[in-house]
């Protein structure tokens, strides 16, 4: 069984494995067939939010509502990264999350987003 309860399949499923997780944070390995675009990295970050341990979400689908403070810190040149994601706030069916994507130990992309659960 997968660590990630998301409907995505290859080639649009970018999450590979959960490295560690709590009910508020997760570190997730993401990977791509080719060097990713900015949009692919953002999609991978949103998929990584399913790596946070939370039983109340099981069986529900999240939809991206808002992106905020997206900053590309360096151009990606590889195909495997780690996402550190944090649940900042949950209010009813809304989840506010922040993330940083790393290539080795160097930050590549930071930002935050909101998803709504259905």
Number of domains: 1
Provide the β-strand percentage band: over 45%
Question: Could you give the order of strands across the largest sheet?
Answer: 1-2-4-5-6-3
CATH architect. name: Roll
Instruction: Give the helix proportion (percent range).
Output: under 10%
String of helices and strands: EEHEEEE
Shape: globular
For CATH, the homologous superfamily is named as Hotdog Thioesterase
The CATH topology name reads Thiol Ester Dehydrase, Chain A
Rg for CA atoms: 13 Å
Number of strands: 6
Main CATH class: Alpha Beta
User: Mean of residue pLDDT?
Assistant: 92
Give the end-to-end Cα distance, rounded to a whole number of Å. Answer: 22 Å
Major sheet: size, sense and barrel closure? Answer: 6 strands, antiparallel
In DSSP terms, counting alpha (H) and pi (I) runs of 4 or more, how many helices? Answer: 1
Which ranges are low-confidence, i.e. pLDDT below 50, for 5 or more consecutive residues? none
Quickly give the structural class. mainly beta
GO molecular function, one term: type I site-specific deoxyribonuclease activity
EC number: 3.1.21.3
Keywords: Hydrolase
Enzyme class: hydrolase
């Amino acid at each position: 069984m997968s660590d990630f309860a998301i409907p995505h399949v290859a080639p649009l499923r970018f999450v590979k494995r959960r490295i560690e997780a709590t009910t508020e944070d997760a570190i997730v390995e993401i990977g791509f067939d080719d060097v990713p675009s900015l949009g692919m990295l953002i999609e991978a970050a949103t998929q990584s939010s399913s790596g946070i341990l939370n039983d109340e979400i099981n069986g529900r689908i999240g939809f991206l509502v808002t992106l905020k403070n997206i900053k590309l810190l360096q151009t990606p040149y590889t195909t495997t990264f780690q996402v550190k994601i944090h649940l900042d706030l949950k209010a009813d069916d809304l989840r506010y999350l922040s993330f940083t994507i790393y290539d080795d130990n160097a930050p590549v992309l930071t930002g935050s987003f909101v998803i709504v659960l259905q």
